[in-house]
Design brief:
single chain; four-stranded antiparallel beta sheet
Length: 316
């Protein structure tokens, strides 16, 4: 039996799959409403993701009638680009600026001015965008220096849940590709970007391939969730790369279109290539030593939800 945990925008989901790929059970725990206190802002509490993940894990084990000891391994997926910052005690410093937060355009402009647009593409194979993690971190540095001074680790949403499950600071290549701090071509953190912006390399977690073991369930988490201590947790993938693997987008010539909170067109690549105009994203795939290219809109279902909530409240 295998367990998948997805940290989405609206909720955390747990899915049990048997050795033949059949789904045994699924359980979703909803998150608190997204905080949008100002125009362009979007925040969530990482602690709420963890609470929801625990409920989902307990729920799926109970629903399937499966003991935690029957789970042979755990994979993670989740919303990409969110900024989780931790202090030296491993505590969350402030709510996460998530993928659809757009407040950081001045920081994007500052990166391009400091590093140079052509160098940015050379270092990370993508333009820097407001949705990515790096400009969010720079926004905290510029506007909340008291919080920035406390930063000891930067994690992505699913990787915060990994930390709570295993005690390990780790990420993997597909999700890291969307931070604007990752060298997609060479599948490693971009020290050129970090050094060029005066950022400490040490705040970055260890980065693995998606299939590699990144840690094991701790005794305290085993007691909390019903999982067995020592169960391995693999790198997993960002939501789009993980979804693509599930949809069979793992060889050239296959393309998917996904409409959810955001909208994505996704294609597999055996060899890395990127658009010199920066019009589409090139990221590492969740398949070892493969890549993918995708076009993204941040407001697909999210825009429809806003329209419904503002103009037709209470409508199904």
């Amino acid at each position: 039996m295998w367990l998948g945990i997805d940290i989405g925008t609206g909720g955390s989901r747990a899915l049990l799959v048997d050795e033949r790929g059949g789904v045994r059970a699924g359980y979703t725990a909803l998150h608190e409403d997204m905080r949008m206190e100002r125009p362009l802002w979007a925040e969530q509490r990482p602690e709420n993701w963890w609470d929801a993940a625990v409920i989902a894990i307990r729920g799926v084990l109970s629903q399937a009638g499966v003991a935690g000891s029957q789970v042979r391994g755990i994979g993670l997926s989740g919303q990409m680009h969110g900024l989780v910052i931790l202090d030296d005690a491993g505590s969350v410093i402030r709510p996460a600026l998530i993928w659809c937060d757009q407040r950081s355009q001045p920081q994007v402009d500052a990166v391009n001015a400091t590093i140079g647009r052509e160098n940015v593409l050379r270092y990370i194979a993508n333009p820097v965008l407001t949705g990515f993690t790096l400009p969010k971190l720079l926004w905290v540095r510029d506007h909340e220096p008291h919080n920035f001074a406390r930063v000891r680790k930067v994690l992505l949403p699913k990787d915060y849940v990994r930390f709570r499950l295993t005690g390990e600071f780790a990420s993997e290549v597909s999700d890291a590709s969307g931070t604007a701090m990752f060298d997609v071509v060479n599948r490693r953190w971009s020290f050129e970007m970090m050094d060029g912006l005066g950022l400490d390399r040490g705040i970055l977690p260890t980065c693995y391939e998606s299939v590699e073991v990144t840690g094991k369930i701790t005794a305290s988490v085993a007691e909390l969730t019903g999982l067995a201590a020592g169960t391995p947790v693999v790198g997993g993938g960002g939501d789009q790369a993980a979804s693509a693997v599930g949809n069979g987008i793992v060889e050239p010539g296959i393309v998917s279109c996904t409409l959810g909170t955001s909208g994505v067109v996704f294609a597999h690549m055996d060899q890395v290539a990127y658009d010199p105009g920066g019009r589409v994203h090139t990221f590492c795939h969740a398949v070892r030593d493969k890549w993918h290219v995708m076009g993204v809109t941040q407001g697909a279902g999210l825009s429809l939800q806003w329209f419904r909530n503002q103009l037709a409240p209470g409508a199904d």
